[in-house]
Give the backbone structure.
Amino acid sequence: MSHIDNSNNGGKAQVADGSTLAPGLRMLPSDARADVYRLYDVLRTLDDLVDEERPHAARRVEAVERWACNEPADTYETRVLSELSQRHSLPAGAFLEFCAGMRHDISRAVICDEEELELYCQRAGGSVGIMLTHILGSAGAECETRMATLGRAVQRTNILRDIDEDATHGRVYVARSTIERFGAPLPGGRAELLRDQIARADELYEQAAGATSLLASGQPGMTVCAALYREILRQIERDGYGRTPGRAVVPAWRQSLLIAEYCVKPRRNSTSHAAVRA
């Protein structure tokens, strides 16, 4: 999930400066950027309530489910979504999918195999790709499908980047069958597991190729977002596949080079790129 400053300030949320998404989202057209911030504020607020195990988290998730089903609901999130729906045709199914992902986290359900992990990634990330398609508009029939695939790729990247942080909170998103095959994802002993999982994420980025170029607006900014996220996988590799604990962080100078590459040389393939070399 993206990192938004969720101050519940009536839709004036700003993406945190340290967020991977920040440089790309700042490139969106102003009107679209404001609505994307509003959307992510809603999603980030729900995600934080669930992650922090707030007692009212389930109730807030249920309110969004009710809103998506055209039932009465009045929370900060549903008010923002109702306001957004006056300008965009928001996909109810995608919001129900996202809430299903939140309920998975609330219940701390075990992910048994890669098929279940792919379903979770669709709920937590693919659904967001679909939502963004409806905010930014679609210029091609394949846009929603490819944006959902891109969302799953980003979610898999999130899981690998945050693997140690999640573990400290007792959360495991790597499939149990994968752990049984490669061993527990502990620092210094998870290189093969990470190689396997990075390859799966890279395959999704390749399947999503051209997704952002099919958007009606905001193509350059969303292309940068996708490129910066995929670079996290390359950073995990450069860091020795989890040799030491902690989150993989792409250095600012490397991010700047990658942003320049995509701004100066627009790519037909908007999600696939060669890693910036040191």
